Amino acid sequence: MARNSVQFQKGLSGPEFEQQYGSEEACREALFRWRWLEGFECPICGEQRHSAIRSRQLFQCSACRRQTSLTAGTIFAATKVALRTWFRAIHHVTQTKQGISSIELARRLGVTQSTAWTIKHKLGQVMLERDAEKLLAGRIELDDAYLGGERSGGKRGRGSPGKTPFLAAVETTPEGKPVRLKLHRVTSFCSRAVEGFAKRSLHPTCEVVSDGLGCFAADSKAGCQHTVIKTGSGARAARTPAFKWVKTALGNIKAAITGTYRSIAPKHVPRYLAEFEYRFNRRYDLAAMLPRLATAAAQTPPMPYRMLKLADVSA
Predict the structure, then answer these.
(1) What is the pTM of this model?
(2) Which residues contact 34 (CB under 8 A, 6 or more apart)?
(3) Which domains does the chain have, with CATH numbers?
């Protein structure tokens, strides 16, 4: 059997990472290029002429005299952690297929678990915002799923406590190959939730294929063409060819979460899902994930720890 070229691609190895980003100065130079693609631009007046205040690692605009740092206004803002540590975190998050827990990330970075958790979730926020506005098109496989298990003595099946519902949609080519993935937490599996997901995530020309769950028909309100394929339940349903890729994606996500994380708070589920979505959608070029995510991080507004910890990302 031929090897899967995606699974066996080289990626960015540890030695290559050290060669490219092994010093703080190398990381600063890279972030400068990725933040200001056409050279420095003052965040106040847009002026490009500037001078560097090297003793304080600041840039001063030659027009309005405003001083700004390399990380101000980005997801790295006000960080006390070295950029090299951030880059190493980006490397671990993007190059591990199954994800990485904050405890393991802390060990690899040499920081506390709390610091690793903050870095990981800020990067998750970048991923979430980066793909939020991108729409799937063409043929779409749509399915429902839960994160979390049943609690002893409670209700079983749909609606049982301890479970977080979410929707999964996979865009495929006419030949049936997976292209992109969308994952979105919902409050429940109802017509309103499906309609909202379809309007935010699917192009109106989509051809959606789903099982017989009644609420899926609501995607037609977003202009999508909807086809129902009744699968029944159990293992036979999971093997239905029409849902091959969405079932495969869901299986991989659940296995990764079970094997990597001890538990996930419902309010943080969107960031965990965004992480899997981000890696899946960029799986054809692993080596490019670090500069792509770092570039996105440089364009993402700051997310203070207080908001990161308490905010419940909208379902």
Answers:
(1) 0.90
(2) 291, 294, 295, 298
(3) 139-256 (3.30.420)
